[in-house]
Amino acid sequence: MLTLVALASLVVLGIVPEKSEAIVIYTGWERHALVGSDVRLSCSFFSWRWTSEDVTFSWTYRPDGSRDSISVFHYTGGVAYVDNKGPFRDRLEFVGDPSRRDGSILLKNLDFADNGTFTCDAKNPPDIVGRPSSVRLLVFEKVPIQAGVITGSIIGAVLGLLVLIVVIYYLMRFLVARRVFSLNVSKHGKKKKEGSQQRQLWTPPPLTLAPRP
């Protein structure tokens, strides 16, 4: 009953609660890094609303082989909070720009034990409904060549070979056409020269006047 009265009061006063819409959060899918290096984990979001002053970002970390996630970073009210007990307490830096919807973090001095899944969640009130996005971090002694790089190299090589074949084909056609043209011009000039020589060698017979009767 009280709820109905409250809603009726809002309608009478012309106050309608602002409808929240979904927020879409983006991170990378997988990041590779070397032991001892630094890596930036990006997080951004799309929202139909203007960027709120109450925008928040939260990062959690789940190590490989573990089912539990731990909180490693939280941004709210314009202040960044780094977990002071977790594995990244001295190695995590906030490098995002909340006004531009960027909640990226920087992990420093990576180790093999840092392998795991990092999940970013963002809120842009009143847009607070959205699915967190995750990125997996893989730390190597040497960063392996990704399959995509190999595939791209093969495709590039095949395309380059096809272009080379097409260029050679048209070049050969041009050379053949040029050769045929040269032969035709040479043959035509030779015939013209022989005809001129024949005209010069031929002497018309002398005219003979018939005697008068």
Keywords:
213 residues; alpha+beta; six-stranded mixed sheet; three-stranded antiparallel sheet; 2 helices; disordered N terminus
Instruction: Determine the strand fraction and express it as a percent band.
Output: 25-35%
Taking the sheet with the most strands, its summary is: 6 strands, mixed
The value of Rg in angstroms is 41 Å
Distance from N terminus to C terminus (CA atoms, Å) equals 154 Å
Taking all residues together, what is the mean pLDDT? 80
Shape: elongated
Describe the structure.
There is one protein chain. By secondary structure, this protein is of the alpha+beta class. The chain is built from 2 helices and 11 strands. The strands form 3 sheets. Strands 2-11-10-5-6-7 form a 6-stranded mixed beta sheet, with no helix packed on it. The protein has a 3-stranded antiparallel beta sheet with strand order 3-9-8, with no helix packed on it. A two-stranded antiparallel sheet has the order 1-4. It starts with a helix and ends in a 12-residue tail after the last helix. The model is unreliable at 1-18 (pLDDT under 50).
Provide a brief overview of the structure.
The chain is an alpha+beta fold and 213 residues long.
Show the helix and strand layout.
Blueprint: H1 2-13, E1 24-27, E2 30-34, E3 39-41, E4 43-46, E5 56-63, E6 70-76, E7 79-82, E8 92-94, E9 105-107, E10 116-123, E11 133-140, H2 147-201
Parallel strand pairs: 2-11
Antiparallel strand pairs: 1-4, 3-9, 5-6, 5-10, 6-7, 8-9, 10-11
